[in-house]
Each structure stands twice: as structure tokens, then as C-alpha cells.
Amino acid sequence: MELIKNLQWRYAVKKYSDESVSENKIDQIIEAINLSASSCGIQPYRLMVITNPAIRQKLAEGSFNAQIHASSHLLVFAAFNTITSGYIADYVAMMEEQRNLESGALNALKDTLTPYFSGQTAQQTAIWSSKQAYIGLGTALIAAAELKVDATPMEGFNPELFDEVLGLSEKNLHASVILSLGYRDTDNDYLASLPKVRLPISEFSKKID
Ligand SMILES: Cc1cc2nc3c(=O)[nH]c(=O)nc-3n(C[C@H](O)[C@H](O)[C@H](O)COP(=O)(O)O)c2cc1C
């Protein structure tokens, strides 16, 4: 399977070259993330794709991850703080439209999801949304590897700073996890020549027949 080769090729890059990733490749990665599965299928996160150098310098303040500013693109996975009844109604209406159903055909789904989310605490919803964002992160890593674009997933950033600089709170969002994209600087990244470290499959996985 080509995917295994691509996953062996990828690693979390520490040092990027100055080469930019083409918009076409970025758009394919975005599309792959949008196609990710999400619980209840309601995609409770949004993606910010940032190239602006001044904004990226600000976002990198206080972080040990230079990749926040020193890479081609920065993706911010911003998870929902709450799931409102309005959001569910709009999403279900979109489902009806995309599946050529009559308006109201999916009322039962709407009537199940609405009380489910209104019964959650803000913390529960934020954690649940963030989990869905991480599924998108996984897709992004795979998509980037297939395009031979390098990537670094990162939790080492200041989420409050991101929320403030990107105005996420007023959009009912919070920064969940981030991903830099670009091309490895093979000569200056100490990780570039190191073998990948993984558990033996026999220790990692057990088949129960
Ligand atoms: C959710 C998540 C957060 C991570 N945060 C950082 C980070 O802040 N900085 C960093 O350099 N690498 C970060 N990494 C990269 C991991 O250290 C790396 O994926 C791991 O060591 C496995 O190596 P590989 O991805 O190169 O195969 C993160 C990875 C994940 C999945």
C-alpha cells in the first residue's frame, strides 16, 4: 500500500526550508480535511489557513515551536465552544438540500441532536468538538504525506493568544491543535536523517479472534 510508504516518509519537521507549498496542494489538503468523519457528522470545527507573516510572528510568541512562523502555511484547527440549536438546524437543512430531501425530512435527526447538545456543559462540548478537530488533523497529516508536503502537528502553542489574535472567541471557536506545512530543510533539521521510532506491531496491536 502506497499509504504505508507515505507514512514512513513523513515525520514531524522541526526546520523548514523557504519553499512555499502551492495553493493547489493546500486546497487538496483542505478538501481532505473537510471530508473527514465527525461524530454526528456536524463538523464542529473550522480551519484557519494562515500565511500572513506578521500574524504568524505574533502567534509564535512564547512558543518553542519556530514552525508556527517558519514554514509555508499554518493551519489552525478551531473547535466549537458550543453547538447551538441554530447551528444544528442549519446543518440539517444543508443535509436535506445536498441529499435532495424535502425540507423537514430530517426533523427527527434535528430533534435528537438539539436536546443532546443543549444538555451538555460548555466544557463537554468544547472537548467533544476538539476531538473531532483531531480527526481532521489526522486526515491532514495523511493528505500532506500523499502530496509529499511536510507537516508538523503541534500542541505547543498558547491557545489563549491564538484565540485573541485570530478573534476566535467571538466566532464561538477556540484553538484546538495546529499544523504547519512546508518542505523539510534536510541539511538543518536534525530529525531528517533519523529513523522513525515506533513500537513493534506485536506490542502495539492484538488480534482477538
Ligand atoms: C497532537 C500532537 C501534538 C504535537 N505537538 C508537537 C509540538 O508542539 N512540537 C513538535 O515539534 N512536535 C509535536 N508533535 C510531533 C510529535 O512529537 C511526533 O509526531 C512524534 O514524536 C512522532 O514522530 P513522527 O511524527 O515524526 O513520526 C505533536 C504530535 C501530535 C500528534
Short description:
The chain has helices spanning 2-9, 23-34, 53-60, 85-98, 107-118, 122-146, 159-165, 201-204, and strands at residues 45-50, 73-80, 150-154, 173-182. By secondary structure, it is an alpha+beta fold. Flavin mononucleotide (FMN) is lined by residues 11-12, 14, 65, 152-156, 177, 196.
Uncertain stretches of 5 or more adjacent residues: none
Distance between the termini: 24 Å
Radius of gyration: 19 Å
Could you give me the name of the CATH homologous superfamily of the largest domain?
NADH Oxidase
In round numbers, the mean pLDDT is 97
Count of alpha and pi helical runs: 8
Shape, per Cα inertia axes = globular
Q: What's the story with the biggest beta sheet?
A: 4 strands, antiparallel
Determine the structural class based on helices, strands and strand pairing: alpha+beta
